[in-house]
Structures are given as structure tokens and as C-alpha cells.
Amino acid sequence: MTQWLPRTYLTLIYILLYVPVVVLVVFSFNESRTGYAWGGLSLRWYEALFNNRAMVNAIWNSLWLALSAATVSTVIGALTALALHRYRFRGKKLLNGMLFVVMMSPEIVLAISLLALFLLVGLQLGYVSLLLAHVTFCLPFVVITVLARLSGFDDSLPEAARDLGASDFTMTRTVLIPVIMPALLAGWLLGFTLSLDDVVVSTFVSGPSYEILPLRIYSMVRVGLKPEVNALGALLLVFSLVMLMLSQWILIRSKR
Amino acid sequence: MGMDSDLFCEGLVRRFGNNAAVDHVSFDVPAGTFFSILGPSGCGKTTLLRMLAGFDKPDDGNIHIRGQRMNDVPPNHRPVNMVFQHLALFPTMSVGDNIGYGLKRRKIPLAERRKRTARVLEQVGLPDLEHRNPQELSGGQRQRVALARCLVLEPTLLLLDEPLGALDLKLREQMKVELKHLQKQFGTTFVYITHDQSEAMVMSDQVAVMRDGRFDQVAPPEELYREPETPFVAGFVGDNNRLSGELLAVRDNLADVRLDDGTLVQGRVASDNLKRGQRAELYIRPESLVLSGDALNSGYSAMQATVRTTLFDGANSRVEAECGGQPVYARLPQDGSAPRLSADSSIRLAWNPTLARVFGADSL
Predict the structure, then answer these.
(1) Among B139, B206, B207, B150, residue whose Cα is nearest residue B182
(2) Rounded distance, CA B347 to CA B323, Å?
(3) Of the partner residues A154, A164, A174, the one whose CB lies closest to the CB of residue B86
(4) Containing H/E element for B223?
(5) B174 to chain A nearest CA, in Å?
(6) Angle formed at CA B295 by CA B293 and CA B301, multiple of 5 degrees
(7) B76/A162 CB distance under 8 A
(8) What's the whole-number mean pLDDT along residues A28-41?
(9) In chain A, which residues have their Cβ closer than 8 Å to the Cβ of B134?
(10) What pLDDT sits at residue B1?
(11) Most A CBs within 10 Å, among B81, B105, B154, to test the A interface
(12) N or C: which end of chain A has fewer CB within 10 A?
């Protein structure tokens, strides 16, 4: 008898969450030119999307940027986290706190300061400036994810590996990395997503030589909502679902 | 240093700042011995063990294992393996891979690794558990996996860092006996550190009692119990009563002591250079105290005490009494020979003077 209230509540929440997504996917198959009237099934907007050279180019640019930014920040972030976990040194607390400052400060502040810095050192705006900027805002997330994993890490594990005959390198490869792997993966995915959909920072530090997807979409929508964007949205959705399932699969496999 | 010595340390020193955690420690562990280092927390036993394993370097002195100087040998090249306090089983590997880890580092082929892993699991009483995860095992099973992971490498020396601490009482009692059996079965030299004197007593061939970075005494458990060489050992190993007083005379290796309440008692001399008139402390074990009536065995010392309470605990039952402001415990035999005791009643506690030990009060 008391079951219906929580169930209805939960259903409403899920409707609220998923209706926009479903609408987007459905309308991406809409024949009609306007975004709000149904005109029958069609793949024409997908076709239009793939025929749009500039758009396809922006997609590749974005994927490449997200891939490199996530990878670079995972490597640097993991090493930073290890240092913060393992060693005691002067300024450790300061360094720790500064990570949070980058994470919590408004994006616009980061964007302006990065732009100012790049102009100051005379760096041409393009892939390199975007990469540096994206690594900057991804880094704290990776560090915090890996640190959280390391806080539950038994510090005698590396010693046990050494004791059983492993060199430092072998210990890192066979014991340390497998243990922090879930965190590396999570940090990498977080960085990838953050980079892929960042608009604010990218607006400031990108140049005409390297156009990326969020900025492209943003400029398209300003002229008017094209159904092409629906098709793009649907594809991105499928892409992130695949990524999510992949990461879950790796996680489950690593636990076995 | 004997020819068959597995571990020989001379003058080991390890300082942290101005404080010497290990302060000129020398000892010799013959092959096949179960050697325990017993001491309260902070006595330096963990630092000592870490130096043996190679995780820490002595500031002075030498470590020899089977005659080879080990000071500059890194942990992965020492013929030594360690069972860690929290076992440190690799959570991302199966039991089989945990045990095969060291063999793999030695480039032993897979088939041989499997064979040896299966054999050592059999020996520690966990056959066919290779494919399980360490997390799925019980505390006692994990303990044995940690042991097997080391023993499969046939180390010269196995170091154990209080590995029983995490187990519940009953399992701990069981593992004590089992560890002792495993040590005999493998014939490996064990160096075991603990703060639990009962663990050290039950398992060891030799026990070193450590305090403030030094060894107070190294002896077999029985000798440690019966002939403690320092007041610290007398008080730390097993239960003991400590009665203070003034030394009156020494003759035939027996010391006459006047306790603070005036009672004249006797005990064996345990420290050198005892002088007349100095403060002294007499140690007597609760089980050496007999409840006597007025009839006193000849030659026995006795004192009058007031019963505070009796503590019933089966074979460990005892009476808590007070003598001149000092607490005294005596064992209450449960064979019907003990009188009924009520609080505030007066009892007479007697002992054979050769079972008591007298130290100078300043020798602590």
C-alpha cells in the first residue's frame, strides 16, 4: 500500500532525467527540417553531419585533444599523488591545498589567467595551448582520485614485493599499478569527459588553427538549432555509453 | 660466531636524531632456531627487524647471514623473507599468484612454480586453494598463505613481525602451536618479534628481551622465567610480585631483606654488588606463594597480608592481597586445598627463598 509513493517519485525523477535525452535521440532520426515537428524516420541528419567536413574535423580534433589531455594529466597526476602519499616534505600541505584551489576556482578565472599567460610567453593559440589548459584543469581530479585510492593502500605491499625479490621497477609494475589501476582509469575517463565538453576555457585559449567540437556546436546553435546537432548529440551519447561500459568491464575484470 | 650460525649481529646501532632506537645489539642465532625478540612497543624491535630485512640500514655494526655480510645488500637480494604485521598479501592476485610471486622473480618456469605452490599449500594445510582470492579467506588461512609465500622460497631466515596480533584470542592460541610445528617441520630459522610474552614463551627456543634499544637478557623461555637477570625481565616476563625493602645481609647467595612494613624475608641474590643498607626489590611469582596457616615450612619466608578480593578464573584463580601498602597476588589452587577467603581477612603467604629473586633497587 505504501509502495506506490516511492515508486511514483522514483519514476518521476527518472522521467525528468531521461526525457531530454530520449527526445534528442528520437529527433535525430526526424525527417523534418524543424526541430520540433515530426516528419517521419530518416537518417538524413546523420548523412548531413558526416558530409560536413568542418564538423568531422572538429570531432577528430576534440577526440585527439581529450585523449592526449587525459593521458598527460593521468601520468602527471598519478606521479603527483604518489609523491603526496609517500613522502613528507616542506610545503606538502600547501601543494595539496593548491590542487583544490584549481578545482574550485571559477573556470572563467582559470581561462583568463591561462590566456594572459599564453599571450605573455608568446605561445600561439592552437592545439598546444588547448592541451596545456585542459591538462591544468584535469590534473586535480586525477590527483584526488588516485590519492583516495592510495589512502586505503597498505604501505607494506611494496615492501613485501621487494622482500620477495622484486626490483623497484618490477614492484611498481606488478603490485603498485594493478592496485591503483581503477583510480587511474577513473581519473583518465574523468579527464577525457571534462576535456571533451569544456567550453569556457577552450573559448579563451583556442585559435583558428584548431577548431574543437564544443565550440563548433556552440557557434552552430547561435545561428539557430539545426537537426544535425541532434544527430551529433545522439552519437556522443552512444560514444559515452560505450566508454562507460568499457571502463566497467575493465574494472570487473581487474577485480577477478 | 658458530659455524652453523644463520644470523649473527654485532654492535648494531640505529639512531633517529639523538635517540638510539637500536643501541649496540649483538646476538647469534644458530641454524634451525625459533628466536623471539620480546619487548614493549617502542623498544626498537621493529627497527631491528627492518634492518635484518634490509628496509633500514644500521648506522654502526654488522649483520651477517650464514657468514655473509649483509649491510649493503638490498632487500630483494637477501636470503631473508618477512611475514608482515598485516600480512601484505597482494589483493590483486590469487593465492597461487601470491605464493608464486617470489618464484617468478627468480625466473622459475611456470610448471615448476605450480608444483612448488601446490606442495607448500599442502604443507601449511591449505591444499587446492590456489585460485581463491586472499580476501575470501579467513584470518587463519590468510596467515598461512603469508607464511607459505615466504617458505616456498626456502629462505635462510624467516622474519615475523607480530603476525598474530590481528587474530582473535582463540585463533591466536591455535596459531601459536601451529607456527611452532611449521618451524620444526621446515627447519627454517625464525626470528619473531612480539610484545606478547606468552607468544614468545610458547613458541621460542631462545627469547631476547629488549628494552630501550638493548637486549636485557637472551635465554630459553624457562630460564628467562626462572632466572631473570634484570628487574625488567622479572617484571615483564610472566606475572610477578615486587616487594621493596632494605637489604640487611647477603650470605650463601641468599639476601635478607626487611620489607617496608618491617617483615624480614629472604630471596636469592640476582644482581651483583648488592650492598648492606641499600634499597632492594624482591620478586616472587604468584604461583610460588603458598597460603599457610601458622605452621611454617622450615626455611620458608613468610609475610602477613590482608585479602582484598579473590579472582576466580579456573586454573588461573588468584587472590589479590595487600602487604604494607604493596599489592600482592597469589595463585589459588583449585584442588580444594585453598581456604575460603573473605575480604579484609588476614592471610599468611610463604615462599621458598630460592624461588624469590632480589635485585638492587637502582639496577633497573
Answers:
(1) B150
(2) 10
(3) A154
(4) helix B221-226
(5) 25
(6) 90
(7) yes
(8) 78
(9) none
(10) 46
(11) B105
(12) N
**CATH top-level class for B5-232?**
alpha beta
Tell me the chain A residues in contact with residue B158 when contact means C-beta distances shorter than 8 Å: none
Interface test with A, best of B16, B92, B99, B156 (most A CBs within 10 A): B92
Q: Domain B240-363 has what CATH class?
A: mainly beta
Q: Helix, strand, or coil here: B18?
A: coil
3-state secondary structure of B338: coil
Among B303, B295, B312, smallest CA distance to B356 is for B303
The residue whose grid cell reads 558526416 is A50
Pair type for strands B157-161 and B80-83: parallel
**In angstroms, what CA-CA distances link B234 with A137, A162, B46, B194, B223?**
63, 39, 22, 17, 11
List, for residues B260-301, the tens digit of each pLDDT value: 888 899 999 988 778 888 999 999 999 999 887 666 677 888
Residues 6+ apart with CB under 8 A from A22: none
Inter-residue contact B347 to B341 (CB < 8 Å):
yes
Query: d(Cα B100, Cα B94) in Å, to the nearest integer?
Result: 10
Q: How far apart are CA B162 and CA B155, in angstroms?
A: 19
* Structural domain boundaries in chain B: 5-232, 240-363
The answer, for A251 touching chain B at a CB cutoff of 8 Å, is: no
Which chain B residue has the Cα nearest residue A252? B92
B68 CB burial (10 A radius; 0-12, 13-18, 19+): exposed
pLDDT (tens digit per residue) in A189-235? 889 988 988 999 999 999 888 989 888 888 887 877 777 888 888 98
For strands B326-331 and B279-284, give the pairing: unpaired
Indicate the helix (H) or strand (E) that contains B157: strand B157-161
**B-chain residue closest to A155, CA distance:** B88
- State whether B86 and A156 contact (CB < 8 Å): yes
Contact A164 B153 (CB under 8 A): yes
Question: In this predicted complex, what is the ipTM?
Answer: 0.83
